[in-house]
Amino acid sequence: MKRGLVFSAVLAIVGMGTAQAQENQLNVICSAAADWCNMAQAAFSKSSGVKVNMVQKSTGEALAQIMAERSNPKTDVWFGGTGDPHILAAEQEVTMEYKSPLLTQLYPWAQRQAAQSHYHTVALYMGPLGFAYNTELLAKKKLAPPKTWADLIKPEYKGEIQMANPTSSGTAYTAIATLVQLMGPDKAWDYLGKLHKNISTYQRSGLGPLKAAARGEAAIAICFVHDVPGERQQGFPLESVTPADGTGAELASISIVKGAKNLENAKKFYDWTLSPQAQQFGYAAKVYTIPSNPATPLDAKAPDLKKIKLIDYDYAKYGSAAERRRLIVNWERNVFSQPQ
Q1: Around Cβ 329, how many Cβ atoms within 10 Å?
Q2: Which domains, ranges and CATH numbers included, belong to the chain?
Q3: pLDDT in tens, 225-240
């Protein structure tokens, strides 16, 4: 009898320890740049005392994991990555509604995106889509830098361009959705078919083409232009341009996973990422975006929205599961499967 009571007491103590340990941790999938992920992990852990278990995945991979785990979530927060898949996750109800106390402090475009998702996600920053180009490689090949989407399908650029694969990359999906909205579906698919003939490689992640252009493995990359100054700071001969005929922008987002096992810590992290103090880590990681909190000091290397022709990107429509599936299936069937 006594032995049974002692054993029960030990189990209770162990159980309390396990519960306490779970209360003091947080499981995060990060789809931002690696340095930003690492800085956010270290800074939040230091300020809160919460142990942050973080893994980096591309936007598409993160969404796939969260969808696969919906019956037994192992992730508490999805941090970063383009906004369209976060909207899709909201639609599929694998993320939960949460209105941060900081929501009303954010730019209207961030508040509008939150409302469109029924407050299942919110923007961390805005990042315009454009092109990066290797100045040395273009000069060597006597090629002019591209200035418009129309330029990219010129025959002289054959084999000189890289972009990511939209099945795994939020960057590439944003590009396809941008072109459909900019040109209309028929012209966009015709354009993407012509662009396909000039693409040398479709990379898994959106940063892949940019890194290739930096190393001289591609002359031009379709990418988010806020990532270019960081590569240039490392000595790579890169410049960027946003297409004069119009372009879209990502609203990189954060969402709390429905059924998060460390919910209170998830809310604390969510709120913290919207603060000016946390949003400055993007610049420390050499990611020069437009932070969603206007109280965050703007870095001089960030894109000047006054000089960029942005389309009225429909984040709700192109973040929906049906539209995303339709665009990706069309791209695989009508573009990717075609000969180059």
Answers
A1: 11
A2: 2-126+250-303 (3.40.190.10), 129-249+322-336 (3.40.190.10)
A3: 999 999 999 999 999 9
